[in-house]
Amino acid sequence: MCLQKRNSFSAPQRLCGENNLFITSIVNLKNLSNELDQRKAQHLYRFRRISDGPQQPEMIIDGKAVISFCSNDYLGLANHPDVKTAFIDGIQQYGTGSGAAHLINGHSRAHHALEEELAEFTGYPRTLLFSTGYMANLGVVQSLVGKGDSVFEDRLNHASLLDAGLLSGARLMRFLHNETDNLAAKLARRKQGESLVLSDGVFSMDGDIADLPALVRVCNDHDAWLMIDDAHGFGVLGENGRGTMEHYGVSRKDIPVYMATLGKALGTAGAFIAGSNELIDTLIQRARTYIYTTSSPPAVAEATRASLSIIKSQPELRARLQSNIQYFRRCCEQLGICLTDSRTAIQPIIIGDTQTTVAASEQLLAQGIHITAIRPPTVPEGTARLRITLSAAHKLAHIDKLVTALHMLKY
Ligand SMILES: *Cc1c(COP(=O)(O)O)cnc(C)c1O
At how many degrees (to 10) do helices 81-94 and 109-122 cross? Predict the structure, then answer.
């Protein structure tokens, strides 16, 4: 039971804010500083902290030693010796830059081998690499739908999926978070054209898992295509790390478009789309964010192949992450620290007010704990939060320090 009355905001899942959409206020180009000052006054000003050294739990941030709890490096692969060696060997073999787009002469043996290994691992006929997850989402949605079609999105989808829907020219409709009845009602009302349903597999700011079996059922009932963005599930969920589909035992056939990123659990960079031969061939013809950009360095693909091999051969990393999650939740429960129902590595503490959340993040930093405050429009208005993420690389002693600091927080 949660003893503190911290959470005045009770039902974030149902909120329908315009989170993640473009900020609509008009910027006065002759007075940018005015707009910046306004952001500061609203505690919405964004800035970067500078880290020295690798991504790992113990980091130097702005010159100060901290324990970090906001990375998406869920398995500790971003600084893994085997992955680093593969990266360096890849540079020796292929040099640094890829030189051109995939369709010119930038598609290396390393890229191709990684695509084949990802297809084998995910169980799809074929995969296609993109330089970032953001670009993968824009490219796929733009290739598959346009004017006259409809895109249906969970309200808490990642910004890149929402932007993909907006930029595609299709009619964009958003359904209540993880409420497939609401989706079904909207699908039933659509007119002609194709329908594409987009959802995060694991929701990036909440850590809850999409109800995939229900999404599949509704999409089949309404003849809609389903695309799942598994940026936070791939490598982590399921017995073999195959992601949200494996977690539920949902078949590949029911998810015609699967997307996952390589910069999170895999510790490198980039993303891929998995699907049928025809889907991948179509993307190679049509996806502008695939065609008109330089392919990522081949050495990144070599490093990612090493990560994938660790994901396959070391299930103990996923087990350690799971036990860290359970340990953290148990400690919080004992101290009455309010958590959500999330069972994944993403464990948000929803504070609500933006200023209070920023102050809490600063208090934690003063105690050597680094957790960025997540504010609107990344999350809906009134649901600012500390987005805590756990990793297999965290030691129990790190988590003890985190829980103590959270317990001492005053807000
Ligand atoms: C991080 C993320 C992306 C973007 O991936 P990048 O490779 O960082 O561009 C897309 N979707 C979700 C759900 C994400 O969390």
Answer: 140
